[in-house]
Amino acid sequence: MAEQDVALTEWLKPFVEKLGHKKRRQMCPVYISGLIGPGDRKSIEPMAERLAPDRYDRLHHFISDGICDAGPLEAELAVQADRIVGGSRCISGD
User: Fold this and answer.
1) CA–CA separation, 94 and 75 (whole Å)
2) Which of 35, 39, 47, 89 is most buried by its number of CB atoms within 10 A?
3) How far is 34 from 47, CA to CA, in rounded Å?
């Protein structure tokens, strides 16, 4: 499991850097781990119980406040998708 945690942390790094606030950067990996990790219930309370029992409020705050400007995350997603998929872009009609 530790290898998976390191791999996830590395993959998330460019996205987390775009979140700005320190608490948001800390809680993002916890939330993503909760979504993709084991456990049937993917709501905040059971994920916090499994991954960060002492940080339920922070995890809830991370989700409930939302992101004011998703632009930097969307731009990073495009960069990472391009890096992973690679190749030239096809535009219809070319």
Assistant:
1) 25
2) 47
3) 5
Structural domain tally of the chain? 1
88 lies in a domain? no
Neighbours of 49 (CB within 10 A): 13
First-to-last alpha carbon distance for the chain, in angstroms, is 46
What's the domain range around 67?
2-83
Position 58 pLDDT exceeds 90 = yes
- Output the pLDDT for position 29: 92
Which of 15-29, 49-63, 76-90 has the least mean pLDDT?
76-90
